[in-house]
Write a structure and sequence with these properties.
The protein is of the alpha+beta class. It has two domains: 30 residues; 58 residues, Nuclear Transport Factor 2, Chain: A (Roll), CATH 3.10.450.360. Helix content is 34%, strand content 29%. It has a four-stranded antiparallel beta sheet, with no helix packed on it. It is elongated.
Length: 101
């Protein structure tokens, strides 16, 4: 009888602990944002994006990489990595060549 009572108490404690942990993690409010990132050839960037890069503060910089980013709300922008000498920078532009934060 004593073993049965001990086993019941152990199961009850295990249940209480596991439900406390699951509630603690379920209510953290942590949201995971998943973005789609697709590589784009620099020559395939839209003309307004290329114009913004060649006429703006990054004139004379070389595009090393470019990506089309699709956010969870389905909006898109281009993430462009540029290089001039040993200096590198990342620029985010929409399809119309406007800066995106």
């Amino acid at each position: 009888m004593k073993k049965l009572i001990m086993a019941t108490m152990a199961l009850s404690m295990g249940f209480l602990i596991s439900s406390s942990f699951s509630n603690a993690f379920a209510n953290t409010g942590v949201e995971v944002l998943v973005q789609d990132k697709m590589s784009v050839k620099p020559e395939d960037l839209p003309e307004p994006v290329k114009s913004s890069l060649s006429a703006g503060a990054y004139a004379g910089w070389d595009i090393t990489e470019a990506f089309l980013i699709t956010k969870p709300d389905k909006t898109q922008f281009f993430e462009i990595i540029v290089k001039k000498g040993s200096e590198m920078s990342k620029i985010n532009l929409d399809k119309d060549g406007r800066k995106v934060e």
